[in-house]
Amino acid sequence: MEGYDKNDLASFHLQLLTKTIDLKKYPLTRLVIEKNITNEEYKELFQLLHTINEEFEAQKEEGFLNFSPLLIHFAGMLNEKLNPDETIHALKQEGYFVELMEVFINLIVERE
């Protein structure tokens, strides 16, 4: 198999795999692939989400009702390759941080 590029081969295999998976069920995975999110960027996203979710839980316990600053912080810190609204919907659909994502979606709907 001389003369082949390992990156081209991996890309080709990934294309084949994505055709076998119903990516509508995995919108976050689809976004990661489409937006060329690296492993490091993916880890940073989930670190951000864990931090914001902890703050959300703390604010809920304190009786906060306005979580707009958390949404603004999330959108501001999100990787520029990702659209905040699309990412929030994808996270909720895949079952990540569901309560927080529902709050964010309600804020987005109110904003529109």
Automatic annotation (TrEMBL):
Pfam families hit by this protein: DUF1878
Full protein name: DUF1878 family protein
